[in-house]
Amino acid sequence: MDRRAAKGWTAAWRTLGVAEPAGLYNRLLDAWSEPQRHYHTLQHLTECLTLADGLREEMTHPEEVVLALWFHDAVYDVRAHDNEARSAQWAVQALGDAGLAKDACERVEALIMATCHGAAASPGTPDSALLVDIDLAILGSDEARFAEYEAQIRAEYAWVPPDVFAVKRREVLRGFLDRARIYTTDTMVARFEAQARRNLASA
Predict the structure, then answer these.
(1) HSE value, Cβ hemisphere, 13 Å, CA-based, for 58
(2) By C-alpha distance, which of 115, 140, 158, 155 is closest to 201?
(3) DSSP assignment, residue 117?
(4) pTM score over 0.85
């Protein structure tokens, strides 16, 4: 884990005024390092946290966004359809046990659930819109990183027959490309939209 990201984890708890639960950091690292993961790994988490660090001034509750990012793919079963819900449940339980206020726990839960990325998704708050855009920033990465990302996704779905995967993956990418805007926030549109459209069209 990137040292700056690790410091951000500690700082978030300190700023929120509650004690970091013993062992939680290492349990999350272990979760993000599970062998079935190829894209949803510490690499993805670090990329998200690094990007978020430079966008703190645009956030209403930056510490909650940081913690939501740590938890947003903490549960990842490639064959399941409730990973976000289970990740959110883990977050709410851990944050509540640590003494974080109920309204803050609910905001973190909503942030995590916003990453379901429905085709017609409309994040409900500025923080959730920004967090979703951060999670999707990979689509607007440079060509080499995008190619790596595509290979990593294929590895996670290695159990799916190639012809079936090709059709389903094309549907997913087309869903993003068909949006009027891939990203919700103006900042992320300016930074990633054009490259994301080039990547998706090529893929």
Answers:
(1) 18
(2) 140
(3) -
(4) yes
